[in-house]
Amino acid sequence: MAAVSEMGWMPSVIKRRKSRPPLGLRNLGNTCYINSVLQCLTYTPPFANLCLRNHHSSLCQKFDVEGKRECPFCILEKQISRSLILEAQSDAPSKIGSCIRLFSENFQWGRQEDAHEFLRYVIDTCHDICLKILKYGGSFTANGDTREGNANNGDGHTIVREIFGGSLISQIICLTCGNESKKIDDIMDISLDLFQSNSLKDALRSFFQPEVLDGDNKYNCGMCKKLSSARKQMSIFHAPNVLVVQLKRFEGIHGGKINRDIAFEEVLHLKGFMSKESQDFSPEYSLFGSIVHSGHSPESGHYYAYIKDPTGQWYCCNDTYVSLSTSREVLSEKVYILFYLRKDQRPKCPNFSGNACLQKQKANVREDSERVVPLELKKIKTSSGLQIKLQNVKKPVKRMLATSANGDLLNKSPVFQDIKELSTPMLNGTVKGTDIYPNSNSHSSAMNFSGQKRKSLDCSNTFPDRLNDDQCLIGGDLQSFKKQLVEQASLQLRTCGWVDEVVCFMRNRKKLWMKETESCGDFSGLRKALIENSKTIFISQLPETLKQNLVRRLKSFSEGKMSLDT
């Protein structure tokens, strides 16, 4: 899969599909989420080329990887090949539907599921099966041909990872001693919060903006041997050949949906988000697919997809109904998942493992270039309002690779031990590693955190002097102050992982209820019960720093000081 031409369509596919629209997929009962994911995977050029050559099934049969159990990758390969070859208007993905539990035991036939969750399970399952083939000694050559491989190949490099895989590098600088550590985590996609973001670029900037770890989210510094405040910066080390982006439209605590327009473009540049250590300087992507959700929750409503066929024509694929579309129509949709294809092949490191590449780069530089002076961080405002002063550290500090997780979080209590069998993998863009925004694949977003309710102020009798000085905080000022409290509290709760634990707990409780009752109906009563249950468990786990900050802000407000620079 190393040749640049493999990123595009094979000429035979272009010729075959030139006069035909995409094959429609019949809805077999709440299977629109399957259909939309299948359409986008079918029109992912490198993945479609792989399936059309039957490379996986030939290896799978040769090594009998799954034994008597049906292989989900083989089933997927056959379905994608049928969609590209079959001369018909529609097809029924009945085999994938009936074998849905091969991808995840949490899925249930006939029940609406989250399209992004299904996509992640499909990609991860195919990757895991390829790892088994590597273990048996099978592999792929650079041009996609099968060959005998090294059974001891332990780098985890599979054809699925070559297509969808990338890596993020996390740099942490201790604000006490200036020690710097780095860690690289592999990803299969990126999930972006939409909190205060109105465009894909805004969400990306927010995802990669520097973060100060303090309060309940302090960094366990190996040099200081204690929990210290630190500055964390993430960037892209390896940009994937196929970039999958999830826009997290589903909030956690109230189960609502962020339904506003999020602007995105057909061409995406990631130059500003690349790591300085990367050999990949300015990757450029072109949009080729998207998934849209209409409705109010991921387990209800309807999913449909837009794809760009081998000739460059856009189509809207809504189950069996396939219609011509335009880029203008695609860009006007309130998308949930975006699929981008690199315009050029990603530069390959001899060993795809990010940490191995970083070690190789470091081994090729002189010792004096390894010794760097930490950043001059004189004053940093933290998420809890604390201002940290750090004098410029003149002493050179040697870079070192982190051997343990960066940015360890406190108060990570196992809040749903009673439903371990339904616990959701931590899929938010990571396959390995745990410390890059430790969210589950559940749809967490900004929760509504209302400040203490206050009575309206009677300025005429109580504060005449303040009224004359225009310091009475009523009307718009009061609403503005409340909004600031909500935003700051929400940001801190998201940063420390509290929101993610609530979301994961609620989603797993919901799945447990659905599994026990085998119900796919109305969830209105369940939502209220989940919220009340979550309050009982999680209110007591609110960070003390957040409580103290809110009390201090409210006290300042009552005294007419409403300081914004907490």
Q: What report would you give on this structure?
A:
Helix 16 crosses helix 17. The protein contains 18 helices and 23 strands. Among the domains are: 4-165 and 240-342, Cathepsin B, Chain A (Alpha-Beta Complex); 417-428 and 443-558, no CATH class. With 566 residues, it is α+β, with helices and mostly antiparallel strands. Strands 7, 12, 13, 14, 15, 16, 17 and 18 form an eight-stranded mixed β-sheet that branches. It has a five-stranded mixed β-sheet with strand order 8-11-5-6-23. Strands 1-2 form a two-stranded parallel sheet. Belongs to the peptidase C19 family. Residues 23-343 form the USP domain. Pfam families: UCH (PF00443). InterPro entries: Papain-like_cys_pep_sf (IPR038765), Peptidase_C19 (IPR050164), Peptidase_C19_UCH (IPR001394), USP (IPR028889), USP_CS (IPR018200).
In brief:
Belongs to the peptidase C19 family. By secondary structure, the protein is α+β, with helices and mostly antiparallel strands.
- Rg from alpha-carbon coordinates: 26 Å
Strand composition percent: 15-25%
In CATH terms, what is the fold-level topology of the domain at 4-165 and 240-342? Cathepsin B, Chain A
Q: Outline the low-pLDDT stretches.
A: 1-5, 141-154, 359-473, 561-566
Regarding quaternary structure, what we see is single chain
Shape: globular
How many separate helices? 18
Distance between the termini: 53 Å
